[in-house]
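Format notes (please read before filing issues)

Several people have asked whether sequences and structure tokens are stored in separate files. They are not. Every record keeps both together, in the order shown below: the sequence lines, then the token lines. Line labels are part of the format and must not be stripped during preprocessing.
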Amino acid sequence: MHRFAVHPTTRLALWLLLMLAIQWLDGWTLAAAFPLLPVLGRPVLQRGWRLVWRARWLLLSLFVIFAWGVAGEPVWGDIPAPSREGLSEAMTQLGRLLLMLMTVAAFLEAMPLPTLMTATHRLLHPLRRCGLDPDRSIIRLMLVLRYVEMLPRPRDWRTLLDVPVNAGSEVLELDEYPLRWLDHILLLSIFAVLVALALRWAAG
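Then the structure lines:
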């Protein structure tokens, strides 16, 4: 491993912090992030577009809920008109969600599934004291990700009935290697940022 290479767990923690930071973007700061997406590369954009397409009905539902559900000045004079404040909130929420989907695509494109499982297992390990079993958690995560990748199109839903029951066993191997000094510094910094954000949120 390169001297300044970070552990997959650190990359996962940084990614989670980035996902949290996206929730603070709005207005021009949110709009300025989209012209930077081509820097991620064509494979990431293609994978992100597939995620967006699969979530299209969720995106449409959120747009309707915010545009027509937030009180404010109507865009036009008729009763079923969306409000200007609702449209602004809808565009903000949809922009954040689109940016998050592209970030997920970039992360999955850069980190193979076995590496992601290793990072998740290490990140969840401290929660073992709270009763959380990291081994079962990563197995469930693996099954969810596999199900999402193999999920047929809506018009092909009948193929789900033809999937045979897997009576065999499957072994999941994790490549564990220790955290380095840079990982400890970054993880402590991420923890400090999360604590500061939590205190700021609690203070109102």
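For reference, the curators noted about this record: The chain has two domains: 15-108, 111-154+173-192. Residues 15-108 form one domain.
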